[in-house]
Amino acid sequence: MTDSIYSDLKQLGGATVMPTSPEEAELERVPNPQADVNYNVRFTAPEFTSLCPMTSQPDFAHLVIDYVPGDWLIESKALKLYLGSFRNHGAFHEDCTISIARRLVGFLEPRWLRIGGYWYPRGGIPIDVFWQTGEMPKDVWIPDQGVPPYRGRG
Amino acid sequence: MTDSIYSDLKQLGGATVMPTSPEEAELERVPNPQADVNYNVRFTAPEFTSLCPMTSQPDFAHLVIDYVPGDWLIESKALKLYLGSFRNHGAFHEDCTISIARRLVGFLEPRWLRIGGYWYPRGGIPIDVFWQTGEMPKDVWIPDQGVPPYRGRG
Amino acid sequence: MTDSIYSDLKQLGGATVMPTSPEEAELERVPNPQADVNYNVRFTAPEFTSLCPMTSQPDFAHLVIDYVPGDWLIESKALKLYLGSFRNHGAFHEDCTISIARRLVGFLEPRWLRIGGYWYPRGGIPIDVFWQTGEMPKDVWIPDQGVPPYRGRG
Amino acid sequence: MTDSIYSDLKQLGGATVMPTSPEEAELERVPNPQADVNYNVRFTAPEFTSLCPMTSQPDFAHLVIDYVPGDWLIESKALKLYLGSFRNHGAFHEDCTISIARRLVGFLEPRWLRIGGYWYPRGGIPIDVFWQTGEMPKDVWIPDQGVPPYRGRG
Amino acid sequence: MTDSIYSDLKQLGGATVMPTSPEEAELERVPNPQADVNYNVRFTAPEFTSLCPMTSQPDFAHLVIDYVPGDWLIESKALKLYLGSFRNHGAFHEDCTISIARRLVGFLEPRWLRIGGYWYPRGGIPIDVFWQTGEMPKDVWIPDQGVPPYRGRG
Amino acid sequence: MTDSIYSDLKQLGGATVMPTSPEEAELERVPNPQADVNYNVRFTAPEFTSLCPMTSQPDFAHLVIDYVPGDWLIESKALKLYLGSFRNHGAFHEDCTISIARRLVGFLEPRWLRIGGYWYPRGGIPIDVFWQTGEMPKDVWIPDQGVPPYRGRG
Amino acid sequence: MTDSIYSDLKQLGGATVMPTSPEEAELERVPNPQADVNYNVRFTAPEFTSLCPMTSQPDFAHLVIDYVPGDWLIESKALKLYLGSFRNHGAFHEDCTISIARRLVGFLEPRWLRIGGYWYPRGGIPIDVFWQTGEMPKDVWIPDQGVPPYRGRG
Amino acid sequence: MTDSIYSDLKQLGGATVMPTSPEEAELERVPNPQADVNYNVRFTAPEFTSLCPMTSQPDFAHLVIDYVPGDWLIESKALKLYLGSFRNHGAFHEDCTISIARRLVGFLEPRWLRIGGYWYPRGGIPIDVFWQTGEMPKDVWIPDQGVPPYRGRG
Amino acid sequence: MTDSIYSDLKQLGGATVMPTSPEEAELERVPNPQADVNYNVRFTAPEFTSLCPMTSQPDFAHLVIDYVPGDWLIESKALKLYLGSFRNHGAFHEDCTISIARRLVGFLEPRWLRIGGYWYPRGGIPIDVFWQTGEMPKDVWIPDQGVPPYRGRG
Amino acid sequence: MTDSIYSDLKQLGGATVMPTSPEEAELERVPNPQADVNYNVRFTAPEFTSLCPMTSQPDFAHLVIDYVPGDWLIESKALKLYLGSFRNHGAFHEDCTISIARRLVGFLEPRWLRIGGYWYPRGGIPIDVFWQTGEMPKDVWIPDQGVPPYRGRG
Ligand SMILES: [Ca+2]
Ligand SMILES: [Ca+2]
Ligand SMILES: [Ca+2]
Ligand SMILES: [Ca+2]
Ligand SMILES: [Ca+2]
Ligand SMILES: [Ca+2]
Ligand SMILES: [Ca+2]
Ligand SMILES: [Ca+2]
Ligand SMILES: [Ca+2]
Ligand SMILES: [Ca+2]
Ligand SMILES: [Ca+2]
Ligand SMILES: [Ca+2]
Ligand SMILES: [Ca+2]
Ligand SMILES: [Ca+2]
Ligand SMILES: [Ca+2]
Ligand SMILES: [Ca+2]
Question: Where does substrate bind (chains A, B, C, D, E, F, G, H, I, J) (predicted)?
Answer without folding.
Answer: 74-76, 93-94
